[in-house]
Amino acid sequence: MANLEKLIIHWVPSTRGARIIWLAIELGLPYEVKQTVKSAPYLKEIHPYGKIPLAEVKYSDGRTVVLEESGHIISYLLRHFDTDKKLSGKTPEEFEEVDFHLHWSEGSLIAEILPLFINKAHKWADSELTTNVFSPHAEEAINYLETVLAKQAAQGNKYIVGDHLTAADIINHLPVAIYVGAKLGPAGPNVQKWLKQIESEKSFQESHKNEGTPPWAS
Question: Which of 53, 66, 171, 173 is most buried, judging by how many CB atoms fall within 10 Å of its CB?
């Protein structure tokens, strides 16, 4: 079987690309970061969609697997390189929980939060859609995460799944950081404590060292 030679991550600050770097560090993968700009023309020469984050998985036999969409990139890297199930969940139950969060974070959580942030960032007047749809749904999603973390805390755990950092924490960080940092709504004590906890992780600090001040920081 061919070995991984290098993971190339095309990255732009304050985007989902940092989570791929974070995952690579946690998995101990050899990686290279190529800073670019959103929708740079050359990206479509690598993948027809041409958006970031974009990853190139280069193998020792000369093959290159090109991956788009952060959720898909994370899923691929976990399937192929998380051999000890460090980030995937160590039990079948934990695996299912982590897999749920990989879909929930991108399919529900960030979909409710981004419209609120864009509205606030552009200082648009609150619309009926924002007030009646996105705000309550975003708060509902954050409250759900608060419930999950409260249950974990009651068992002495600091993370979303199990007793250690998993891909569930990595993928949920960005939308929660936007929600809390931009003060888009209330966040419970367990969510806020969790956010501080994972941002203190050495791997987080390393993966985000070139991020600068994000646009949602208060």
Answer: 171
Domain count, the chain: 2
Residue 112 lies in a domain: yes
Cβ atoms of 33 and 11 closer than 8 Å:
yes
Task: Evaluate the omega torsion of the peptide bond into residue 48 and state whether it is cis, within 30 degrees of 0.
Answer: no
Contact 58, 6 (CB under 8 A): yes
213 in a structural domain: no
Residue 106, domain extent: 92-208
pLDDT digits (tens, 9 = 90+) for 90-135: 999 999 999 999 999 999 999 889 888 887 777 655 555 555 556 7
Q: Is residue 122 part of a domain?
A: yes
List the beta bridge partners of residue 180. Answer: none
**pLDDT at residue number 129:** 54
Q: Which of 101, 131, 106, 118 is nearest to 178 (CA)?
A: 118
Co-location of 107 and 184 in the same domain = yes
Instruction: State the residue for tokens 């998380």.
Output: 82
Distance CA 19, CA 186 (A): 24
